[in-house]
Design goal:
The complex is a heterodimer of chains A (about 325) and B (about 180). With about 325 residues, chain A is an alpha+beta fold. Chain A contains 11 helices and 7 strands. In chain A, α3 runs antiparallel to α4 and α7 crosses α11. Chain A is elongated and about 115 Å long. The N and C termini of chain A lie far apart (about 85 Å). Chain B is mainly alpha-helical and about 180 residues long. In chain B, strands 1-2-3 form a 3-stranded antiparallel sheet. The radius of gyration of chain B is 20 Å and the shape is elongated. The chains are: A alpha+beta (about 325), B mainly alpha (about 180). At the A-B interface, α8 of A face α1 and α5 of B.
C-alpha cells in the first residue's frame, strides 16, 4: 500500500497538480485581463517541467529491471508534453492578439475574446465611465466626420497614427474653441462618445451670441419687427445638442425621440475625461467618427420636441457651429 | 372760481364714446392675439382677466341709454353736471383705458427683459391686477355718479330742494333768473 501511494506516476501527478494550483493562485493576483496570459504562461511552464520529469522517469524505468512500468511513465510524459505544447500555442496566440491590439490592429467587427476582455477590464477599472444608451436615440440628422481631419492634423507629428485618445482630444479642443463649455464622455462599443450641452441656435443653425446661447427658454430679439411678432406669437426657441460617436461598429438608430429635457438629463452621468486605456487603441479602419445632431424646437413654457428631419444638413450644422473649422485648424489656438 | 355746467346727457355720451372706442381697440387686439399663439394654452385665463375690466362699465352705459332710449327728450328735465367733475371722470377714463392698453402692448418688452427665464405673457397680465384694480375702482366711482342717477332721485331732490339742484348734477335755472 505504501508502495502504491509512492508510485512515481502518482508523484508526478501530485507534483503537477501542486504546480498548477500555485500558478493559478499566482495568476489571480494580476489584473483580470492579464489573468489569462499569466495562467497560460505558467501552465506552459508547469507542463514542460512535468513532462521533463516524466521523461526522466521513463528513461530511468527503461534502464532498470522493472520495465513493466514503462507504459505509465510513457503515457504520463506524453500527456504532459501534449499539455505543454497546447498551452504554449494558446499562450503565443494570446500574446499575438495583445501585441496586435497594442501596436497595429484595431478590433475587428467580430472582436476576439481578448479584445472584448480588454475593454471589459477598462470598464471595470473605471466605474464612473458609463456607456451611452445604445443604440443611440434618433437624431435630427447625422454626418460622418472625415477621418483625414484626425489623421492629418497639424497637432500630431507626421506619420503618427492617432489613438482614440488623440481623436478625443482633438474633438474636445474643437468643441472648446467653438464655445462649448459643457460636454461629457461616454463609452460606445469599442470606442467612445462625446455628448455636448444644449445650445440655442438661429434658423440657419448658427448659435446665438454670448449668454443667450445657453438660455433654457427662448431668447428674444429687440427690434420693431420682433416687437410686432411678439404681440401676436409666442417666442419660439431652437436648440441643438451634438453626440460624437467613435466606434468600429456599424450601428442602427433607435426609435426613441428625445425631448430637450431628456437630452439635458443625458449629459449628467457622463465622465469628465476619457480613461487612459484609449491611448493604446489606434484610430484606424474600421474606426469611424460620426456626429449625431439633435435639434429641438418649441415655444416658451413647453418642452421642445425633436425636429426630424432637420432642414439643415448635418455637415452644415458642424460648419455653422464652427466645429469643422476648429478641427481643420487642428487644435492650434 | 366760476364753474360751468354741461348737460348730463352730453357728458354721458362723451364718456360712452371714449369707452366704446377704447374698449373696442382693446377687444380687437385681444382677438388678434387669441388667433395668434402668444397666449397659447391660456386663452381662458386671458379673457377671464380682460373682460371684467371693461365689460361691466360698457354694460352699465348701455343699460342707462337703453332705459332712456324711448323717452322723449324734454329740455326742462335735462340735468346738468359740473364741468370739472365731468373732466375728472373723462380724464380718469382715458388714464384707465390707456393703462389697460399699455399693459397688453408691453408684453413683448416684458418677455424681452425676462428672456431666459420661465415667464410668460400671462404672468404680466396677472401682475397688472395690482394697478388696474384700484384704478378701476376710482373710475367706476366717478362714472357711477354720472350714470347711476335715476329719475326718482332727481324728483326726490326737486322735492327737498326747490331749485332742484343736487351736489354735482343740477337742473337748469329758470329763464327769469338768467
Amino acid at each position: 500500500m505504501a508502495n502504491t501511494m509512492l508510485k512515481p506516476t502518482n508523484l508526478f501527478f501530485i507534483f503537477f497538480g501542486v504546480l498548477l494550483l500555485t500558478s493559478l493562485i499566482f495568476a489571480l493576483w494580476f489584473e483580470p485581463y492579464q489573468f489569462l496570459a499569466a495562467f497560460l504562461a505558467s501552465t506552459t511552464l508547469v507542463s514542460l517541467l512535468s513532462a521533463a520529469a516524466a521523461a526522466v522517469h521513463l528513461f530511468w524505468t527503461m534502464s532498470r529491471a522493472r520495465k513493466e512500468r514503462w507504459q505509465g511513465s510513457a503515457l504520463t510524459a506524453l500527456g504532459l508534453s501534449s499539455l505543454a505544447v497546447i498551452s504554449m500555442v494558446v499562450s503565443v496566440r494570446h500574446s499575438a492578439d495583445q501585441l496586435m491590439l497594442k501596436h497595429a490592429a484595431t478590433p475587428l467587427n467580430r472582436p476576439t475574446v481578448d479584445v472584448r476582455d480588454a475593454f471589459d477590464g477598462m470598464l471595470h477599472d473605471n466605474p464612473n465611465f458609463k456607456p451611452l444608451i445604445w443604440p443611440p436615440p434618433m437624431p435630427s440628422t447625422l454626418t460622418n466626420i472625415p477621418a483625414g481631419l484626425f489623421v492629418n492634423t497639424p497637432s500630431l507629428p507626421d506619420g503618427h497614427t492617432p489613438s482614440l485618445a488623440d481623436v478625443a482630444k482633438l474633438l474636445a479642443d474643437a468643441l472648446s474653441k467653438s464655445g462649448y463649455t459643457k460636454f461629457a464622455y461616454f463609452y460606445a462599443p469599442f470606442g467612445f462618445a462625446i455628448v455636448t450641452g444644449i445650445e440655442q441656435i438661429q434658423e440657419d443653425g448658427t448659435p446665438l451670441d454670448n449668454d443667450r446661447r445657453w438660455f433654457a427658454e427662448p431668447a428674444v430679439d429687440f427690434s420693431i419687427a420682433a416687437y410686432l411678432r411678439l404681440l401676436l406669437k409666442a417666442p419660439v426657441g431652437r436648440y441643438r445638442s451634438l453626440i460624437f460617436v467613435v466606434t468600429p461598429h456599424s450601428y442602427p438608430l433607435s426609435d426613441i425621440r428625445l425631448t430637450r429635457y431628456a437630452m439635458s438629463q443625458l449629459l449628467n452621468p457622463g465622465g469628465r475625461q476619457l480613461p487612459d486605456f484609449y491611448e493604446n487603441v489606434l484610430f484606424r479602419s474600421p474606426y469611424r467618427a460620426d456626429a449625431l445632431i439633435y435639434e429641438f424646437e418649441g415655444r416658451a413654457g413647453t418642452d421642445p420636441v425633436l425636429v426630424n428631419p432637420s432642414a439643415i444638413p448635418g455637415i452644415l450644422h458642424l460648419k455653422r457651429a464652427r466645429i469643422l473649422l476648429a478641427l481643420e485648424t487642428g487644435g492650434a489656438r | 372760481m366760476k364753474h360751468g355746467f354741461i348737460p348730463l346727457e352730453n357728458a354721458r355720451w362723451s364718456l360712452a364714446k371714449l369707452w366704446f372706442i377704447g374698449s373696442g381697440l382693446i377687444f380687437l387686439l385681444l382677438v388678434g392675439q387669441s388667433i395668434g399663439t402668444i397666449y397659447d394654452g391660456a386663452l381662458q385665463t386671458v379673457w377671464g382677466w380682460a373682460l371684467p375690466n371693461f365689460v361691466p362699465t360698457l354694460a352699465l352705459m348701455v343699460s342707462v341709454f337703453a332705459a332712456d332710449a324711448l323717452k322723449p327728450y324734454n329740455e326742462a328735465d335735462s340735468s346738468k353736471v359740473r364741468e370739472p367733475f365731468y373732466k375728472l371722470a373723462f380724464g380718469l377714463s382715458i388714464f384707465y383705458l390707456s393703462i389697460f392698453l399699455v399693459t397688453i402692448l408691453s408684453v413683448p418688452a416684458f418677455l424681452y427683459m425676462r428672456q431666459g427665464t420661465k415667464v410668460s405673457a400671462i404672468d404680466l397680465l396677472q401682475v397688472s391686477n395690482l394697478w388696474l384694480g384700484p384704478l378701476q375702482g376710482i373710475v367706476v366711482a366717478a362714472l357711477g355718479v354720472l350714470f347711476f342717477l335715476k329719475d326718482e332721485d332727481k324728483n326726490a331732490e326737486r322735492g327737498s330742494n326747490p331749485s332742484g339742484q343736487a351736489s354735482n348734477v343740477a337742473v337748469p335755472a329758470k329763464e327769469d333768473s338768467r
